[in-house]
Amino acid sequence: MPLKRFIFATFLLVPTPALAEDILVFAAASLRGALDEIVVAWEGSPVVASYAGSATLARQIQAGAPADIFISANAAWMDVLAAEEMIRTQAVIAGNRLVLAGADVTLGIWPEALIDLPSDARVATGFVAAVPVGIYAWQALEASGLAEATLPHLVQTENVRLALSLAARGEVDRAIVYATDAIAEPGVAIAAEIPTDLHDPIEYPAGLLTNADHPDAQRFFDFLNGPDAAAILSDHGFEVAG
Questions:
Q1: Coil, strand, or helix at residue 125?
Q2: What percent of the chain has pLDDT over 90?
Q3: 139 exposed, middle or buried (CB, 10 Å; 0-12, 13-18, 19+)?
Q4: Which residues are registered as beta bridge partners of 47?
Q5: pLDDT at 173 over 90
Q6: 172 DSSP β-pair partners
Q7: Residue 112 burial (CB < 10 Å; 0-12/13-18/19+)?
Q8: CA–CA gap between residue 101 and residue 110 (Å, rounded)
Q9: Residue 134 — very low, low, confident or very high, per pLDDT cuts 50/70/90?
Q10: 133, 182 in Cβ contact below 8 A?
Q11: Distances from the Cα of 72 to the Cαs of 75, 154, 204, in angstroms?
């Protein structure tokens, strides 16, 4: 894919400050809201969640960021850290679905909902080479035979929430995002659900970092994998086991 043809939208990430006594969780941006509620339900040491794209967070951990837990929006970035022996243990805590969303739209059918747009319509998603939502989106576009036509008008961002915000403000015509994000954003509606067989399964593995030294880190990791957290994730539209 010729990078010079991409339209990039980049944003400055501001780290969330954390005190030494806090459990620090690096989490995919699409978990904001659900994870915030999980933190409120947790009874234990204070938890600070830092949200960004999974790729950005994984690279920060590689560079020595002092996180205790990493929650990725795909297995690939967790595997990168695991291969470097940076993950002590991991488990999938949730799943998601991919949708085409936009402002002032009605529910249609994929891929017609994208094909019927004007030829110069701009579509936002995550970076297709690194950000999980962008990777899934690119897989779906390729499987649908729409990658080449969409590429010149593809706006790529550092995480799914940024792509969604562009659609909500009308700065792009559509965004390929997670269903949970589209549901949570009042400024957009779902234009089409993207069939799950067009991309890899969307899973959120949580990993306890090898260097996690907070005494409550293991207990919060277990809480993330427990029924209370699962119920909250389900309420936010995520798919959970059982």
A1: strand
A2: 90
A3: middle
A4: 23
A5: yes
A6: none
A7: exposed
A8: 11
A9: very high
A10: no
A11: 7, 23, 5
